[in-house]
Design goal:
Blueprint: E1 2-6, H1 10-21, H2 25-28, E2 31-36, E3 46-47, H3 50-55, E4 60-63, H4 71-80, E5 84-87, H5 90-107, E6 111-112, H6 123-130, E7 136-142, H7 145-157, H8 161-170, H9 179-182, H10 185-199, E8 201-202, H11 218-226, E9 229-240, E10 243-254, E11 266-273, E12 277-284, H12 288-303, E13 314-315, E14 324-330, E15 341-344, E16 349-352, E17 355-356, H13 357-367, E18 373-377
Parallel strand pairs: 1-2, 1-4, 2-3, 4-5, 5-6, 8-13, 10-18
Antiparallel strand pairs: 7-9, 7-11, 9-10, 11-12, 14-16, 14-17, 14-18, 15-16
Helix pairs in contact: 1-12, 4-5, 5-10, 7-8
Length: 379
């Protein structure tokens, strides 16, 4: 099968490397004939003009450009032309899922996105497999290697957030502008697409609450250790009693929790279903080869004509009204939370009584403290 690759950065190079090596008969059956890139390079397949992609004889377009545009436009054009699409672009797909999925269905082509969440972990495939027998009741997971590296290092080395962010940037785990990672937006997009795969529910990313780790401190980590807890940035989703709950927040997990023990830049995700119970998947969550591997797996699924049940996702609304937890809060405006405060947790920090997530978010907005840190205290 002839493939056009859109984007030749970290992920694109990983996917191209796997295909070009052709280590087995399956990958040898894939051929990259065009690569769209922003700047020239010494590869005859490179083009700087998408019209060259449109004019060439390809059956599948693999998009790993990142960002909303021009990625969205190019993917839409590929589908309109009757070409299958594989994408690693979680932001673009989360924002435009329904539009692109409906177009793929209309044109009778595949739109696969294993590489959008979990890196090399076959997370979407795992959810699809579970759903052959069971409904997925809930999922949770660590879906960002950058923040997991920072939190793991802070826990193990006792350093503060700023130091660990700088180190993560030096190692290439964090971007020069780390906003999407540390403010939880990257995990939000992955949560949206996980909800498509788990619940056939397509929601607008902006409706999923996302609280990140930008303002976590060594004192917060220390409180967790004193209480046998380890903090992780967790994506959470549940469908229960007709309500779809989705949110992204740091959580102080019991140190015996399997998620608490996933360190470095690894990812870990868990689905819960009636027959299987909790099933957990751990692996490299990002990087050239792990994410490229996921993209090539989707290409092989299409090239081999493997039957994959299409997600019959419908537009849905997030309803977190049933989410009740205890929360750890550190803020310069503790008086705003006086009515829900249950116990002290250090200077300007406390744990709330059990309360609704929506109520907490309202209080956070009222406090208007730009350096507030909030986390779930897991049951």
């Amino acid at each position: 099968m002839k493939v056009a690759l859109l984007g030749f950065g970290t992920v694109g190079k990983g996917a191209a490397g796997i295909i070009d090596q052709g280590r087995d008969k399956d990958t040898a059956g894939l051929e990259i004939v065009r690569i769209l890139k922003r700047t020239p390079a010494d590869d005859p397949r490179i083009t700087l003009d998408y019209q060259d992609i449109e004019a060439c004889d390809v059956e599948l377009v693999a998009e790993c450009m990142g960002g909303l545009e021009p990625a969205h436009t190019y993917v839409r054009k590929a589908l309109e032309a009757g070409r299958h699409v594989v994408t690693a672009n979680k932001k673009m797909l989360a924002e435009h899922y329904m539009e692109l999925a409906e177009l793929a269905k209309e044109k009778n082509v595949r739109l696969l996105f294993e590489a959008t969440a979990g890196g090399g972990i076959p997370w979407m495939a795992a959810l699809r497999r579970v759903r052959r027998i069971d409904d997925v009741e809930s999922f949770r997971g660590i879906l960002n290697g950058t923040t997991n590296y920072i939190l793991s290092a802070m826990t193990d080395e006792g350093l503060d957030f700023g130091e660990m962010l700088k180190k993560a940037q030096e190692l290439g785990y964090a971007e020069a502008d780390p906003t999407d990672d540390i403010d939880g937006y990257d995990v939000r997009y992955k949560t949206v697409l996980s909800a498509v795969a788990a619940f056939d529910a397509a929601v607008r990313p902006a409706t999923v609450p996302a609280l990140g780790i930008r303002h976590i401190s060594a004192a917060d980590i220390a409180w967790g250790k004193e209480n046998n807890r380890i903090v992780k940035l967790i994506a959470a989703g549940e469908k229960k009693d007709g309500r779809l709950s989705l949110y992204v927040m740091p959580q102080f997990l019991h140190d015996s929790d399997v998620m608490a023990r996933i360190g470095k830049n690894f990812n870990g995700v868990e689905a819960v279903s009636t027959t299987l119970g909790p099933s957990t998947y751990i692996g490299q969550g990002a990087g050239s080869l792990p994410t490229g591997h996921a993209m090539v797996q989707d290409m092989l699924t299409i090239a081999k004509g493997e039957e994959v049940t299409a997600y019959e996702a419908s537009a849905a609304e997030v309803d977190n009204s049933g989410v009740e937890k205890c929360f750890y809060i550190r803020t310069a405006r503790p008086e705003v939370f006086a009515a829900v405060r249950a116990e002290n947790a250090g200077a300007d920090a406390f744990v709330t009584k059990r309360m609704g997530l929506n109520d907490l978010l309202a209080l956070i907005e009222k406090a208007a403290d730009p350096e507030l840190f909030a986390a779930v205290v897991a049951d």
